[in-house]
Please model this.
Amino acid sequence: MTTQPLATATTATSPVLRVPPADPAVAAAYFGASLAFHADVSDVAAALASDGDPGFVLLDSRSTASWDQGHVPGAVHLPTALIAGQARELLDPAVPVVTYCWGPGCNGATRAAYALAQLGYQVKEMLGGFEYWVREGFEFETWQGRERRTADPLTAPDESDDCGC
Model:
């Protein structure tokens, strides 16, 4: 009588492992590609806070009303619907663009990145959007001036600028 190894029995019953993980080389290619398309809020904030040129332009793709409600300092405002007609006036095609919109429940940054890529721009999307920018405690601007909220402990570590990711 043969018995199955414990890992195989666990794999068969685990909803996580019903579909087994990808081969490590395939996983490395997939996750590497994901990093080529995405940046997180804390990395964007660190790049913008460093001395000198961050190497990219940050683009807010939301409406004017949304922009007025709050936006990342230094971002360029260009709603997605206006990208085809105005990107060349506002953005240097030689400089990568990082797009953002409201947050994880909104695909506006994805649509903006797609429109820019179709125009020949190198582009990434900032995961979390404006929502996570504010939730992580970074400064933002409104029509009334600059503001900062206390970081949400579910999105950023207490009393630290580095999440260790």
In short: DSSP finds seven helices and seven strands in the chain. Residues 24-37 form the longest helix (14 residues). The two ends are 47 Å apart (CA to CA). The mean pLDDT is 91.
